[in-house]
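User: I'm curious whether this sequence folds into something compact or stays loose and floppy. Could you predict its structure so I can see for myself?
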Amino acid sequence: MSFAPQSTFAVNLRFPLDELPLEEVLAEPKLNGPIPTSFKEERHKFTLLRNIKKGPLLDVGCGQGNRFTFEQLGFSYVGCDVSFDSRQRDNTRPDVDLVADTHRLPLRDNCFAAINSTAVIEHLYFPLAAASEWLRVLKPEGLLVGSCSFLEGEHFNSQCHYTALGLFRTLRCAGFDVQYIYPGLTLWELHSGSIYFGMPFRNILGRLHRKMYLRLSEIKRKGSAREKLFANAAIVNFVATKPTKGTDQPS
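Assistant: Here's the prediction. I'll summarize afterward.
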């Protein structure tokens, strides 16, 4: 992912860096009702996006795009990426509306109802600067949903793989109210092809590895299942909102 050398930006660290997330933040949002098979994003996003006021949605680092998935929920879709043909997922035709550096978006303040950022942060030069831009272009109470690599292997020149705590603090320093931080696939599930050397049923083996590890940890009392999932997560998911005007901001 290229970074425009002429871009300039300033970021104020506006929150104590020793803040820890509350227990209720380190949880997965509850699903409310069935998820349609046509929804091609992480399952938790459906309920969250369905329940907010609709408007423009910015899909940051969209690659091939996911226009239908978000438009069927009532959003006006804007796909944004660093080029018209990043081909990060597959060889299908890209669907990009805006080519821009997400560290400095050519967009006015408070114009998006929601932002989706799937597997983008790990590729950025300065995640805090990008997160500050996302906060700026979101409307008050606007929703940010996404994911970031932790123990996923290096890919497409990724460089900023985050722990759950690091991701939480980055979003808080940018000014977001973090609603949820929770683990996605474990390293065994995501890298099952490499771990099991292309064996048949390797995806099933990856899931079994996760279950056995958690069960053995429970028997030996080596920490909670949630702690183990965070420690071995390949992907960390996040949900955050932009505070409304008048809400106490980090200082």
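Summary: Residues 1-6, 246-251 have pLDDT under 50 and may be disordered. The chain has eight helices and seven strands.
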